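Narrative progress, year one. The postdoctoral researcher (J.K.) led the effort to move from monomer predictions toward full complexes, under supervision of the PI. The following entry was the first complex the group processed end to end, covering 574 residues in total.
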Amino acid sequence: MLESWNDGETKTAILEFVRAVTTPGDSFVPPAERIATFDNDGTLWCEKPNYVQADFLTRRLNQMADDDPTRRTRQPWKALYDRDHTRLAQLLTRASDLTASIGDVFAGITTEAFEEKVRAFFDTAVHPVLGVPYVQLAYVPMLELLDLLRAHDFHVFICSGGGRDFIRVISEEAFGIPRDRVIGSAGTVEYRDGDVYRTKGLELPIAEGPGKPVHIWRHTGRKPLFACGNSNGDQEMLEISAFSLLIHHDDAEREFAYDDGAEKALAEAAELGWTVASMRRDFARVF
Amino acid sequence: MLESWNDGETKTAILEFVRAVTTPGDSFVPPAERIATFDNDGTLWCEKPNYVQADFLTRRLNQMADDDPTRRTRQPWKALYDRDHTRLAQLLTRASDLTASIGDVFAGITTEAFEEKVRAFFDTAVHPVLGVPYVQLAYVPMLELLDLLRAHDFHVFICSGGGRDFIRVISEEAFGIPRDRVIGSAGTVEYRDGDVYRTKGLELPIAEGPGKPVHIWRHTGRKPLFACGNSNGDQEMLEISAFSLLIHHDDAEREFAYDDGAEKALAEAAELGWTVASMRRDFARVF
């Protein structure tokens, strides 16, 4: 177990916690209550230089602008056309902007039609730096951690600030996690004419920050026993978990080194004694 | 398998469908796609003379009126005090009335505190006619059907128009269904001060009628392969399922005989060729 983790405090802390809650005694937790939740981007797979879903979205936005060039005068197409990456990132990640900016990008089609578009993306797209298909971007040590938890009767969920229905298309293939165990932000859907259609809205709150415990509760009826994230958006999920693991991206050679967007989480980890996994120190291999 | 089902067309249709989708061949469906969804009230357990949750709610409302008798001049306490059962039923089941009438009945407390109240109810309440604890009100043939599906690698979910967080407290005990496989209508929650609190809102749409396919999609990312219900509120769920089973309450001796609220579903079943289980004819035993 955890063959791709180097021996050390982090690996020991994980193994010791799993042993404690699965061995008869004071710390024992029944299998039904063994909920584990993992953030996706930057936790289970690479999120740099861009979120995988951002690549998917910008391709779709470019296609829409090609179909109707007048769109380039409006957001979010304007930011994309102007190569204003800062503004574009805002438009694609802030809940307040998301519905207005991309609400109708995939609205009005069936959930199956959306799935086909996602599948077509994953069948062809490759990571712009590493040059491999995105579904191969899962961190091997994290896959081993998922296996370890499942082998100890944990119910393992993804809880992503990104798009639930996007990730579900490849969650089984990339992480061995079935669709019904993927929690995340999502567009609204409706039932009509015998089918399920995407609509323009966004399920609120989005599954980021304080929205993560809300989505986890809705989906599982429990708080996590084990949670793992890598950014400020994971803080609240880590706060309500019994064991909290924060992935630190500090390996510029084998992946990317950045604390941007994780400063608060790293500070809280130090303050509350969460376990921090250094990718440089703790991962024997990355991909 | 299905020992408490009498031999006949219904039992044969169920067994034949399960065999077809789990045996290599043209009809085979991979385990990941074997989603089964069951309505709860009137499908998995008895819903007469009242919904189990209605008993829970009226006890709470009576308690609140005892604590503050001025509440009896306002709804829903007034209807309860006046014994106006028709109005009370409206107030407790219509989505448009629910938030206004009971939004603050359990708001402001943690999800754990709510669970304790539900647990206390189930520990003491008994069915007003049958005289047994509510958790013993599951229909034995239905429990066997759940077992049959699980034994064939189906992912078995409850999808209830009633309260998700209410049912989850006893879903494992009463039906062998873990909390994260209970889908249903629910009050909103929020994260604050390190815990998850109930708030006054209602997650929309409620998981009834066209809301069922929406909730099932949100939770599982799929349409059901097998669905089972008993009322008009289950029609849309049965429409999107490959195999659709409608429970018909026609056994006045062993349970209750009523078509009220199921007229449209029974008509659609006849029209579309859904399988209808007659409790009188197909159930060798009920409880």
